[in-house]
TrEMBL record:
Reactions the enzyme catalyzes: O-phospho-L-threonyl-[protein] + H2O = L-threonyl-[protein] + phosphate; O-phospho-L-seryl-[protein] + H2O = L-seryl-[protein] + phosphate
Molecular function via GO: protein serine/threonine phosphatase activity; protein tyrosine phosphatase activity
Alphabetical UniProt keywords: Hydrolase, Protein phosphatase
Enzyme class: hydrolase
Gene Ontology cellular component annotations, sorted alphabetically: cytosol
Domain Tyrosine-protein phosphatase: 32-225
Keyword Transmembrane belongs to the record: no
Assigned protein family: Belongs to the protein-tyrosine phosphatase family. Non-receptor class dual specificity subfamily.
CDD domains registered for this protein in UniProt: DSP
Gene3D superfamilies: Protein tyrosine phosphatase superfamily (3.90.190.10)
The protein's name: Dual specificity protein phosphatase
Organism: Trypanosoma rangeli
E.C. code: 3.1.3.48
SMART domains linked: DSPc
Length: 280
């Protein structure tokens, strides 16, 4: 996993070039189109992207599902099985294996035969509630998005369609929009309002709930960091290999953790560290 993470560099920040383009679906509902936010990233609803054959034809190699169910495996890949001669879902046991497999697949050209294209699916059972802490998922999901973007850039000379990704929730208006905005903010260093404007220009139905707005503001104030468990700690540690990132972390994130009630999960994760140091 750590060899893959070394491919990801958040510094220097890069400007996101928005692309206002939609792939129309045979339905007048405003949430159904596949909205291209920028090259390589689409935002849509569950109804559209749950058609995995459509995802394969569209060159979507990664799907981030924000309205997942507790009984659905968090890490899966939809792939062709030569045994059954059809596409099946295969569970992957961990983020590490998911990341490594995704990197291996998206580092290569997209298979020309549509049926042989894989679709990696990260399912998060997030709630569209102002009280739900969606920002605890930002670090992991931003990492997955950036990995596809990095590998996509390395394959730009390919004659075949480049790997893309799709982000969705139930209607593609709140949970998925919050995640895409969080990525745009972290990648480009822009504000919450600037990121949401980019998304809304491409997808007019975009409208995160007030709680997600507040969390995106904290994401901005904290320098685009959350450390709530061992996974996010590992992802953050990888970023802090760069001195410029360490400076931002110490000046923005850490002071906010100590005083912001909204970052209680972060404080709880660090509690054993500072409790142990104070007892010495």
């Amino acid at each position: 996993m750590y060899d893959v993470l070394k491919k990801i560099h958040w510094s220097p920040q890069q400007r996101i070039v928005p692309t206002i383009e939609t792939i129309a679906i045979e339905n007048d509902a405003p949430w159904r189109p596949l909205s291209k936010i920028f090259e390589g990233l689409f935002l849509t609803c569950e109804e559209t992207i749950c058609n995995r054959c459509f995802a394969q034809r569209s060159g979507i190699s990664l799907i981030l599902t924000l309205n997942g169910s507790d009984y659905v495996a968090p890490y899966r890949v939809y792939e062709y099985s030569y045994d059954t001669q059809c596409c099946v879902y295969t569970k992957l046991p961990s983020f590490s294996e998911f990341l490594t497999s995704l990197d291996h697949y998206t580092s290569q050209e997209t298979p020309e035969e549509v049926q042989l294209r894989k679709v990696f699916i990260r399912s998060v059972p997030a709630e569209d509630s102002a009280a739900y802490d969606i920002s605890r998922h930002f670090s992991e999901l931003c990492t997955l998005i950036e990995l596809v973007m990095v590998n996509r850039k390395n394959l730009q000379k390919s004659c075949l369609p480049l790997h893309s990704l799709g982000v969705h929730c139930l209607v593609g208006a709140s949970r998925s929009v919050a995640v895409v905005a969080a990525y745009i903010m972290k990648r480009s260093g822009c504000s919450k309002d600037e990121a949401l404007l980019i998304v809304k220009n491409a997808r007019p139905v975009a409208n995160p709930n007030p709680g997600f707005h507040a969390q995106l503001l904290y994401w901005e104030k904290a320098g685009y960091y959350r450390v709530v468990d061992s996974l996010t700690a590992s992802l953050t540690a990888n970023e802090l290999r760069h001195k410029s990132m360490l400076k931002t972390y110490m000046e923005k994130y850490f002071p906010l953790v100590l005083r912001a009630n909204k970052l209680g999960c972060d404080r709880e994760f660090f509690r054993p560290c500072y409790s142990g140091s104070m007892s010495r």
